[in-house]
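In this supplementary section we document a worked example of the pipeline. Step one takes a protein sequence of length 268 as its only input; no multiple sequence alignment statistics are reported here. Step two produces a three-dimensional model, which step three serialises into structure tokens for compact storage. The input and output of this example are shown verbatim.
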Amino acid sequence: MFGPVRVTPISGYAQPRPALIAVAHGSRDPRSAATMSAVVADIAAARPNIDVRLAFLDLNAPSVEQVVHAVAAQGHRHAVVAPLLLGSAYHARVDLPGLLAAARTAHPQLGLTQADVLGSDPRLITTLRDRTLAALEPTGDMRPLGPAGDRGPLGVVVAAVGAASAAANARTGEVARQLAGMTGWLTEICFATTEPSITQAISRLRARGAEEVLVAPWFLAPGLLTDRLLAAAPDVAHAQVIGPDTALSEIVWDRYDTALTAASRVSA
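The serialised model returned by step three reads:
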């Protein structure tokens, strides 16, 4: 249903810039694929002279294998593969490198360079803050938020997927700490697939004195897991996911540029 987002290089380029293959996780929920298609359309619009494609690791088409084949068939000699992943866990460290190793064997004429994940880039933390503030607006309460204002302290549950790796979850926990440092809000991390759960995180915020609690999803797109979080805590407000965003596009292109610089140093 959702095909690749593609921008054909403009004429006049003897050596087209390497293609960008943006790799999303994939989901059984069609909202996820639709959102990631919009995300990649924004990314492509930022640099219309570069061929940009969307691929999925699982559950959606086109697959990474299919997109690599299409890029090679288009005549590209090099492509940067950018994981649209917020954490550096199994998918970024094992799954995607394995897929690219097989793709290099199938298409030896095509150089493939894996870029870094999105991670807890401060620009995305700012977007997370903005989504949180937007979720507070419908209340109509325009008093300043604590600790400086006359509203009670705000507690924000940063809700992420969760991983089997404790180290990966600890890295994700840094998102909540960065948000707290940026805003002065009380924050706790929770995970949709492991502990601490959303109810545990809310209880911790209440114990710390939070009078108002809101959930800030650390997700690029809505899906089954964000629905699970909403069902587990229906009595508190939930902010929107990150979705298409200028900062997200900037970060992906930064990862692209950094990966190309590193690849040129290796080949030099």
